[in-house]
C-alpha cells in the first residue's frame, strides 16, 4: 500500500484538469485517489445505493457542489442546470444560456466545466479536420445519465418516435460510443460535424474514418443529407445510419443498421478498425 507521502511523490504535478485512471480492479485505484485528493467530494457509482441516491435525487448534486464551494450563486446554478438539461445533447450556446440564467457567458462556461470535472456530463467536440465548408466549432454537452436531464425537465415518460425519444436514442448511442472508445483501448476521437449551412452528422469517429447518423425510427432517404455532404469531404469514410429498422440495408454509399446489430458490431470492433 502506498503511503500518503509516496503517493504525492509519484504524482507531483497534479493540477485542476480531469483525468481517467485506468487499471485492473482491486489494485488500489480508489485508495490512491482518496490519498491524493483527501478533501475532494467522492462518488462511488459502483455502489447501487449511491447511484440510486443521485439518480433519484439529482438536486443532491447541486447541493453537494454548493457545499464544496464550487459555485457562489446557487440560484443561478440551479437555473443553469435546467437550461443545460433543456439543451442536453445540443450545441452549447453559452450566450443564450447566460441570458436565461442572469449570469455572464464566462460563468456559464465555468458551470459546464464544473459538470465535466465532476463527471456529471461530458463534452462532444466539433470535428474540424480539413474542412471544405464553414463548420460550427462549439461543442455539444451530454449529461452522464439521461435521468438527470429528465428530472430537471420534469419529464417522466418518453414516447416512442417522439422528438424526445429521438434525443434519448442519440444519447444512448453517445454513451455506448464513449464507453467503447475507452474499454476497447482504441481511444479514437469522438466528435460531431455541423456546417454553417445546416448539414450535420451526429458522430464522427477517429480522423473521419466513420460517420454515424442516429434515428429513433426507421430511416428514409431524407436522413442521408448530412452523411452525403460529409462523404463529399471525406470520400473514404464509412457512413452508417443507426436506426430502429428491422434489418440492415444499403442506401447508396450509406449502410443502415438496426441499433442492436450496430452495437454488436461496435463491441466486436467491426465498426472502428
Overview of the molecule:
- This protein has 273 residues and is of the alpha/beta class.
- It has a domain at 163-267: Trna Endonuclease, Chain: A, domain 1 (3-Layer(aba) Sandwich), CATH 3.40.1350.
- Helix content is 41%, strand content 14%.
- It has eleven helices and eight strands.
- The chain has helices at 4-10, 29-36, 48-56, 59-67, 74-86, 94-101, 105-117, 146-152, 163-183, 225-233, 259-267, and strands at residues 121-124, 140-143, 190-194, 200-205, 210-214, 238-243, 249-251, 254-258.
- The chain has a six-stranded mixed β-sheet, with helices on both faces. A two-stranded antiparallel ribbon has the order 1-2.
- Helix 5 (74-86) packs across helix 6 (94-101), helix 5 packs across helix 8 and helix 6 (94-101) crosses helix 7 (105-117).
- The longest helix is centred in the middle third of the chain and has 21 residues, at 163-183.
Amino acid at each position: 500500500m502506498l503511503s500518503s507521502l509516496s503517493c504525492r511523490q509519484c504524482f507531483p504535478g497534479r493540477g485542476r484538469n480531469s483525468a481517467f485512471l485506468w487499471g485492473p480492479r482491486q489494485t488500489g485505484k480508489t485508495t490512491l485517489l482518496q490519498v491524493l485528493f483527501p478533501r475532494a467530494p467522492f462518488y462511488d457509482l459502483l455502489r447501487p445505493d449511491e447511484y440510486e441516491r443521485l439518480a433519484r435525487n439529482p438536486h443532491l448534486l447541486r447541493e453537494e457542489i454548493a457545499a464544496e464551494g464550487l459555485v457562489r450563486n446557487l440560484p443561478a446554478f440551479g437555473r443553469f442546470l435546467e437550461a443545460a438539461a433543456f439543451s442536453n445533447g445540443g450545441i452549447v450556446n453559452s450566450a443564450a444560456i447566460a441570458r436565461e440564467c442572469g449570469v455572464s457567458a464566462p460563468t456559464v462556461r465555468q458551470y459546464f466545466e464544473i459538470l465535466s470535472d465532476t463527471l456529471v456530463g461530458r463534452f462532444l467536440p466539433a470535428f474540424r479536420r480539413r474542412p471544405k465548408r464553414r463548420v460550427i466549432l462549439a461543442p455539444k454537452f451530454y449529461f452522464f445519465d439521461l435521468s438527470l436531464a429528465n428530472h430537471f425537465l420534469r419529464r417522466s415518460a418518453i414516447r416512442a418516435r417522439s422528438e424526445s425519444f429521438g434525443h434519448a436514442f442519440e444519447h444512448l448511442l453517445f454513451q455506448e460510443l464513449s464507453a467503447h472508445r475507452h474499454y476497447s483501448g482504441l481511444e479514437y476521437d469522438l466528435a460531431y460535424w455541423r456546417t454553417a449551412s445546416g448539414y450535420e452528422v451526429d458522430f464522427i469517429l477517429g480522423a473521419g474514418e466513420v460517420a454515424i447518423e442516429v434515428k429513433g425510427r426507421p430511416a428514409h432517404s431524407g436522413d442521408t443529407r448530412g452523411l452525403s455532404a460529409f462523404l463529399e469531404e471525406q470520400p473514404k469514410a464509412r457512413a452508417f445510419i443507426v436506426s430502429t429498422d428491422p434489418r440492415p440495408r444499403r442506401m447508396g454509399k450509406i449502410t443502415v443498421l438496426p441499433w442492436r446489430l450496430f452495437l454488436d458490431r461496435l463491441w466486436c470492433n467491426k465498426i472502428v478498425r
